[in-house]
Amino acid sequence: MADFFDHLSDILFLDIETASLTEKFEELDPRLQEEWIKKERLIRMENPEEVEPGSLYFDRAGIHAEFGRVICVGVGFFQSKKKDKKLVFRSKIFGDSDERELLLALKDLLDKKKWLLCAHNGKEFDFPYLCRRMLIQGIPLPEPLQIAGKKPWEVRHLDTMELWKFGDYKHYTRLELLAAVFGVPTSKDGIDGSQVNTVFYHENDLEKIKKYCLRDVEVTARIYMAMHPQSDELEIEIVHSEESKKDHKD
């Protein structure tokens, strides 16, 4: 148990929210419009009734890094107070309509130490999406996101969905499903991932998305802890960055 707590503060839990690169398909660069239509032909195999080119752009482009953008990133890490039988989870949100500024701020944090990154479906979505968008924005990748040439065991990435599979490759497991089975409060109160693009472009409410993103980070962290049950029941105190000026100490 000592080793678990010794390394727990090295884990940076992470969640990203993304939107389509532009609000309307017609606003997209013409070269990207042409490429999206090709991508859309593959997507339409699932939705053969869709016939208008570009009709799937608003709903589907945000999940593809070439046609989307990062609008906020939530992060958090644990600090152990073993004497008090308590863990303090310190979280922070990076949210900005200027994607490059957001990613630069995130890079500053990721460069501070050799983090072990953890996200739900992070290996399939969050980590590669961040890498692609950083390179598109001309930002060198911070060390925790550099995986080229590394052996699998040298990549410091954790994925709660992968941990839950235990070698089973049959299906995708939603974060909300794991939250439900472990009794973790839902993060889907008021908004879910399918509504992010609408909230961002139509409601112009980035704050609502940031709050949702932070809740997802907290849920991911709680699920990770549930996957590593301890003999002692530990209280978890949540502290957002705006509530404390304390920085993380190695």
Automatic annotation (TrEMBL):
GO terms for molecular function: nucleic acid binding. Residues 90-240 form the Predicted 3'-5' exonuclease PolB-like domain. InterPro entries: 3'-5'_exonuclease_PolB-like, RNaseH-like_sf, RNaseH_sf. It holds the Pfam family DNA_pol_B_exo2. This is Predicted 3'-5' exonuclease PolB-like domain-containing protein. The lineage of its organism: Bacteria, Pseudomonadati, Bacteroidota, Cytophagia, Cytophagales.
